[in-house]
Write a structure and sequence with these properties.
14% strand, 11 strands, PH-domain like, binds zinc ion, alpha+beta, 358 residues, seven-stranded antiparallel β-sheet, 2 domains, 12 helices
Length: 358
């Protein structure tokens, strides 16, 4: 028992009007006692857990109601709170209410994270596949045109290649497209391919494809290549990305992740818009390693079908490696790492295709 915890107040027996000055105290085992202030005579005794303590409302007097109906009234709000908090454990009181809320909040946060992870891991890939399936060509057209438009504003210059050079390359490109339409897995009617020439500006030698079949090649890449077959090997690789709908998948994946971010953080407004517009641009240019392998193999097969060197794309990677090194500061290399493993694997696959094993 501790004297410092005793709270002074008035005691009224059930239904009685008369009040007796009294002290409310608590024992270490949580038993409350009410004694008269005058001579310490015990008036009531009960476990603190089973008495009713009125809520704190401003400076209004508090009531501790005993099972007998007896009532202890006090204006010592702090005294009552102190006494209750120390002996009721974590079961009641405003402070305790908060502490009780915290584990619930943690569970809620953990559940939200788990849900988002599950959506990201299981639902997003499925939704991406469904979205790719139902995306009408009009939408991919808009995606392709808007990405190309923003790239034209941000990085590209007009091509400096001569008309003759562009026409020659376009003729070879159209032959690849015709062969691509004959490929076993080709979709029908398939995207409407168009080859676009651009000055690469700060992105230098590069080539990429947009979901609608717009393929872009920079003057720098055309100038860099040792021969036209190398350029066609790269363009065949880009046609592979379009045929496998890699860009569209990638854009939807980012859109799905953005939607998740919005789900967690609420509408993050301008930031989301940035991710959607600039992100779509960047994303359209970078693919997963699996997608890259798929596009490499597609290039090998398409080049073989048009009677050209199936290993042309591997030769182009060797050229990049020799000119710029593996970690070279070339944007095409940052999205298409020219690792020895990639070159070896593509050459091996080209041998298989040539030998008629594929
Ligand atoms: Zn690629």
């Amino acid at each position: 028992m501790s004297d410092s915890e005793a709270v002074g107040g008035l005691w009224r027996e059930a239904g009685a009007a008369a009040a007796t000055p009294a002290l409310l105290d608590v024992a270490a085992d949580g038993t409350l006692t009410v004694r008269t202030s005058a001579d310490g005579q015990e008036l009531a005794r009960q476990a603190i857990r089973s008495v009713e303590i009125s809520a704190r409302v401003g400076t209004i007097a508090r009531h501790v109601t005993f099972a007998s109906g007896g009532d202890f009234e006090t204006s010592d709000n702090d005294g009552i709170d102190r006494l209750r908090d120390r002996h009721l454990g974590r079961r009641e009181g405003l402070i305790h209410e908060l502490e009780r809320f915290r584990p619930r909040l943690l569970i809620f946060v953990a559940a939200t994270i788990a849900l988002c992870f599950a959506i990201y891991r299981y639902a997003v890939p499925v939704l991406v596949e469904v979205a790719v399936l139902v995306t009408p060509p009009a939408v991919t057209d808009i995606m392709g045109k808007s990405v190309l438009m923003s790239l034209d504003q941000l990085v590209f210059d007009e091509t400096k290649l001569s008309d003759a050079r562009r026409n020659a390359l376009d003729t070879q490109f159209q032959a690849l497209v015709a062969a691509a339409r004959d490929m076993p897995a080709a979709s029908s009617p398939g995207p409407s391919y168009a080859l676009n020439f651009r000055g690469g500006g700060q992105i230098g030698p590069n080539a990429f494809a947009l979901p609608d079949g717009s393929v872009v090649v920079t003057d720098e890449l055309v100038d860099l290549a040792d021969d036209d077959e190398m350029i066609m090997g790269v363009l065949a690789h880009e046609i592979g990305h379009v045929e496998h709908q890699h860009s569209l998948r990638q854009i939807y994946r980012v859109a799905g992740i953005t939607a998740l971010i919005m789900l967690i953080g609420g509408d993050i407004g301008a930031a989301t818009e940035d991710i959607m517009t600039q992100g779509a641009t960047l994303v359209a240019l970078s693919h997963s390693r699996a997608a890259e392998t798929e596009a490499d193999r597609y290039s090998v097969q398409l080049m073989h079908r048009t009677g050209q060197d199936p290993a042309a794309i591997a030769r182009f990677f060797e050229l990049l490696r020799d000119k710029f090194g593996l970690g070279g500061d070339v944007t095409f290399l940052s999205t298409h790492p020219a690792t020895q493993a990639r070159i070896d694997e593509t050459r091996r696959y080209a041998e298989e295709v040539k030998a008629g094993k594929r």
